[in-house]
UniProtKB/TrEMBL annotation:
Residues 35-153 form the Alcohol dehydrogenase-like N-terminal domain. It comes from the Bacteria. Belongs to the zinc-containing alcohol dehydrogenase family. Keywords: Metal-binding, NAD, Oxidoreductase, Zinc. InterPro entries: ADH-like_C (IPR013149), ADH-like_N (IPR013154), ADH_Zn_CS (IPR002328), GroES-like_sf (IPR011032), HCHO_DH_non_GSH (IPR014184), NAD(P)-bd_dom_sf (IPR036291). Residues 197-264 form the Alcohol dehydrogenase-like C-terminal domain. It is an enzyme of class 1 (oxidoreductase). GO terms for molecular function: formaldehyde dehydrogenase (NAD+) activity; zinc ion binding. Pfam families: ADH_N, ADH_zinc_N. This is Formaldehyde dehydrogenase, glutathione-independent. Its EC number is 1.2.1.46. Its cofactor is Zn(2+).
Length: 398
């Protein structure tokens, strides 16, 4: 095996499927990775975080191989790997983690101290995340495989549910992390900002955790229609009615117990005049307004340290006009950062395998070929209510 192809970031607004090197058991530093495996990619998903890079809103370099949501089949095993063998079907947490540092030992795998020389935390195919090659490709290398990989217990069962299980690498644990850190519990009223795939995964997670009412807000009417179709209440933030008033129309009061930000730094303003203008702090500020006193706000939405496409100089440095005093006055708790996928993925796998959650239907998975990936990026960026899943080898189609 020597051929490989992957989705490569070329320039703002442009990705291409190109020939890339077949993966070797080598770390970005050049050190031998006998702890790793090579996977034949079974499925790999387009994520909203990828779109931030493709829009030119990060410092991602041209030539970056994209893709951090990966499910695969083991085809090569490093000499130090003891728990996996060729033929195993596995889910890859988007966090690259060593399993040995203090953060990994506490299962804070989103901020592993060993896999990225520049800062805590690593990820596949992502800017400033350690140089690990992305998995929107035919083959990919995964390091520290014994620690990182979640092996599915039965190959046939896994392939039957692969449209759901592909969501375990990122969006389902990320949505679940948002719900957990927002304090969702049985009987909670929950507001989720953002009706994209992560927002819908957060809403589904809130329902799984026993929320009484889950409300999803967005400015995209098509995505809101899909959210209603799969059973959630919605508020339309392109309308002039305030978020608090729209919540009150549903709950009878203008506040919720818990709130989850699944939008991040490319947020837009509310109302007819504001919904087409960027306002990167608007979601955080609105969540503080509608979350009850002493409530929690989970923030799985992405915020970056540098945003070259921001509308003002402060936002370009990651500085936002957040009404922190309001959150302080209401004794809010905020929880941010990359999701530590391994805290949740095994239990969420069981929820999928035992039909406790139908996440592929909720996020509207659409399977495409590797060659269709550039068109998938364009469609996703247009705001369609779909989660694009790339099938590099035609295994899902068959």
């Amino acid at each position: 095996m020597s051929g490989n192809r992957g989705v490569v970031y070329v320039a703002p607004g442009k990705v291409e499927v190109q020939s890339i090197a077949f993966p070797e058991l080598v770390e970005p530093s050049g050190r031998k990775a006998n702890h790793g495996v090579v996977l034949r990619v079974v499925s790999t998903n387009i994520c909203g975080s990828d779109q931030h890079m493709v829009r030119g809103r990060t410092t991602a370099p041209a030539g970056l191989v994209l893709g951090h949501e990966i499910t695969g089949e083991v085809v090569e095993v490093g000499s130090d790997v003891t728990t996996l063998q060729t033929g195993d079907i596995v889910s890859v947490p988007f966090n690259v983690a060593c399993g040995r540092c203090p953060m990994c030992k506490e299962m804070n795998t989103g901020v592993c101290l060993s896999v990225n020389l520049a800062r805590p935390g690593g990820a596949y195919g992502y800017v400033d995340m350690g140089g690990w090659i992305g998995g929107q490709a035919e083959y990919v290398m995964v390091p520290y495989a014994d620690f990182n990989l979640l092996k599915f217990p039965d190959r046939e069962q896994a392939m039957e549910k692969i449209r759901d299980l592909t969501c375990l690498s990122d969006i389902l644990p990320t949505g679940y992390h948002g719900a957990v850190t927002a304090g969702v519990r049985p009987g909670s009223t929950v507001y989720v900002a953002g009706a994209g795939p992560v927002g819908l995964a957060a809403a589904a997670s809130a329902r799984l955790l026993g929320a009484a009412v889950t409300i999803v807000g967005d400015v995209n009417k098509v995505r809101l229609a899909h959210a209603r179709k799969v059973g959630f209440h919605t508020v339309d933030l392109s309308e002039d009615a305030s978020l608090a008033d729209q919540i009150a129309a549903i709950l009878g009061e203008p506040q919720v117990d818990c709130a989850i930000d699944c939008v991040g730094f490319e947020a837009r303003g509310h109302g007819h005049s504001g919904s087409h203008q960027e306002a990167p702090a608007t979601v955080l500020n609105s969540l503080m307004e509608v979350t009850r006193a002493a409530g929690k706000i989970g923030i799985p939405g992405l915020y970056v340290t540098e945003d070259p496409g921001a509308t003002d100089a402060a936002a370009q440095r990651g500085s936002l006009s957040v009404r922190f005093g309001l959150g302080w006055a209401k004794s809010h708790s905020f929880f941010t950062g990359q999701t530590p996928v391994m805290k949740y993925n095994r239990n969420l796998m069981q929820a999928i395998l035992w039909d406790r959650i139908k996440i592929a239907d909720i996020v509207n998975v659409q399977v495409i070929t590797l060659d269709e990936a550039p068109q998938g990026y364009l469609q996703f960026d247009s705001g369609v209510p779909k989660k694009f899943v790339i099938d590099p080898h035609g295994l899902l189609a068959s």
